[in-house]
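Quick note —
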Amino acid sequence: MTLLEQIDTDPAEALTALLARWRQAPDPVLADAIDVVSAKAAAPAFGGTLAKQMQAALGAVAKPDMVQLPAILDAAARQRGIDPVSDLLDALLASWPPDPRIGTALMGWIERPPWTSQRSQRIWRRAFRLLEALGDARIQRLAEVDTNRAFPGLTGDFVGERIARLLGRPFAPSTASQAQRAGWEAVLARHADRARREAEARASIEALRDAVLDAPDDLGARMVWADALSELGDPRGELVLLQLEDAAGELDRSRRIRMNALLKAHEADWLGPVDAVFAKTGRVWERGFLVRGNVRPKSREVAESAVGHPAWRLIRSVDLTNQQGTGWRGVELVAQPATTALREVRGILDSQELRRILTDPTPRPLASLGLVTSYWPVDGIDFTPEVARVRALERLELTPGWRHCLPGLATVFTRIDRLVLVAVLSLQSHGNATTPAEAVDQLRQMARMATHAEVQIHHGGLVMTAIAYEGEIKVHLHDGQWGHAQQQALMAALQLLADGPGLHHIRATRAWRNVLGDTWRGVTLEPL
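Predicted structure written out below.
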């Protein structure tokens, strides 16, 4: 049986034989062939949390099974902590027999480092011990690594010194026969041919995907793309078809479970660098693409690596709230040229961020903006030349503090045809209390700015939602922490609304109806 036949019939056995040969006499061509055969024989990656993956990897190192090594190395590369990776490399040094696949992984880490802090020198110290023990001549490729660019400061110096020391060691020449090398080269040649054909197929798939991105409402183009993915064995094709069924209301429980399982298993691969930009919670996928998410990049590097990725093309809604401590504001991601489908941006921190979004030349169908107005300057905003960019705006959400910048907002958002203003106001907020009269006055100011104004007026746990639409005011009274002060504050605001024109409709919970009765100031109360 030839080596190629053995790889086809029993890749694990072929891998074991090739590793035994490499341990007798290392050879760079053989090492590359081992990488190819290992990918064919490899066991599935470890599942669960990162901590569970590392626990499984350490257990696998203790009982070496050659097909498990790719999963072990993959689990290590996913870790963010320095100590777990250091422990794993110590375990490989102590327990794993010499294996060129370890060298392949470590060289890949050096070329594209997952860890670059000064503390990560613990990892790199162990990595170079492993590389030195392996005696793999392929490390000559590390001569091309620019450590000053790949690593910061002292860590770059540390890695650069060890690369130079490693490259200075002599390597024994290969003792393989011509026939042996010919067999290994045949493995590599077949792999290269398959890789070429797969690349061609992928290029075709990407062209079909781009057709979907260019015409997202073309159902036919999306189904052609899904079928092509399925023919290649890519589970994203199945996801697209399942989500099309879901959109049509035809997805049963078992298939919904399957759809969710596909997303859990593969969405990180499908999103690429964009996966690290969004929080795991709050994601919404439709017809095979991410369309909504909460932007939470952990660093500037993470955010910058995701700029321009095709996954942005169909994202319609992003939330930039709660990014304190990340060192990066997601407005730069919002304003990149790839976000051409974006309709909703929430969590805009200040007038500079709003200006950045409105002045970006990329055309976007922005319909909804959410402003974290507690951070806005008291004098509001003033950049009326950009008003034209928001003529299609339909909804503007304001968090507590919006009353300070209402005049400035009016200069930008007045006279938009279909604007809905949604705001939250606390009658007692951090010692800067707003009176019921001020709350009602601000609701009326909003009603002059927009065709539909809605404000939630809080006091403690009680909430009153006042809605102004075409001169008519509707009030919704909600239950909450029931206390005399809270009740009196909201009652005062309600009385002020009733004293002015336009209060025609009140919906209230049972507790509020018990307080107000069946009618109040001539307005009939309805159940909420």
